[in-house]
Amino acid sequence: MSKKPYDPGTEGARMGFADAMSYGDYLHLDTLLTQQHTLSDAHDEMLFIIQHQTSELWMKLALHELQAARTALQQRQVQAMFKMLARVSRIFEQLNSAWDVLRTMTPADYTRFRAALGPSSGFQSHQYRMIEYILGNRNPNLLRPHEHVPDVHAMLSAELARPSFYDEVTRYLYETLDGHTDAMPAPDLGSAHGVNADIQSRWLQVYGDIDAHWTLYELAEKLVDLEDYFRRWRFNHVTTVERVIGFKRGTGGTSGVDYLRRMLSVELFPELWTLRGDL
Questions:
Q1: How many CA atoms lie within 13 A of 131 on its CB side?
Q2: Distance of CA 224 to the CA centre of its chain
Q3: For residue 235, how many other CB atoms are within 10 A of its CB?
Q4: How far apart are CA 87 and CA 104, in angstroms?
Q5: Which parts of the chain fold into alpha helices (H)?
Q6: φ and ψ at 107, to 5 degrees?
Q7: CATH number, domain 42-278, options 2.60.120.10, 3.90.1150.10, 1.20.58.480, 3.40.30.10
Q8: What is the spatial distance between Cα 17 and Cα 37, in angstroms, rounded to a whole number?
Q9: Quick check: 250 and 256 in contact, CB under 8 A?
Q10: How many CB atoms lie within 10 A of CB 72?
Q11: What is the pLDDT of residues 156-208, one digit of tens each?
């Protein structure tokens, strides 16, 4: 690599890269573009692989942002956190759009290579599981599909041992409104967060006087926005699966569409939804 910094303003478009960083070098495209290994001769298997690989890349970025957002909130860098949460919402908007591409695959197309998947399933995505754990939908039983990868299992277990992002939001809510967290309910680290009347009463206080509590109000609406996109992603997942395999069992052994439909009822920030009926 050249030691002299390249100045595009004076040198113009560079055409030779024997001694300089190229686009492909920076993105490691020689590695990235060789990771799509089909196991059948079905034309649509390439679509299926790229759809899921790119989804995992977007989820990696979502995790990067969520983990940074939690740290920013703990350090009370609220405006920086807002930017990260807005980005996560846009990431899930992008993930939603990807279903439109996958839905061009017909049931006959999928049947040609489905057997090649064996028992593998998106249900086993550890990054998706980590997103749910960080946001507060916690089920320790879902650690089991990851026991065969010790590092992943340890990472997910460590997340279950710490307060979720929404737990940190709740702490900030009580600290801001009460001046302390003495009355804050203890986080339940090992199960999904359910509606808590005391937490909801404080959010009602925020929504009852948004001018006095604008920062908390903005935070609440950013969380609702994030969950809105997340729910749409789940819904599009359900409709895509139903369109392609109907009500067959999923490759990983779940009940398929029935399982995915049950997941639609899960609320990540339930107080922010239930309070709307009380306003």
A1: 24
A2: 14
A3: 16
A4: 27
A5: 8-11, 23-27, 29-32, 45-74, 78-102, 107-111, 126-135, 150-160, 165-178, 197-208, 214-245, 257-263, 270-274
A6: -55, -40
A7: 1.20.58.480
A8: 29
A9: yes
A10: 20
A11: 999 999 999 999 999 999 999 999 999 999 998 888 888 999 999 999 999 99
Both tokens of residue 213? 């509590």
Q: Note whether 95 and 233 are within 8 A (CB).
A: yes
Tell me the pLDDT tens digit for each residue of 92-110: 999 999 988 999 999 999 9
| CA atoms within a 13 Å half-sphere pointing along the CA-CB vector of 62 | 27
Closest CA to 203 of 231, 177, 182, 166: 177
Tell me the C-alpha distance between 141 and 136, whole Å: 15
Q: Who contacts 27 (Cβ-Cβ below 8 Å, separation ≥6)?
A: none
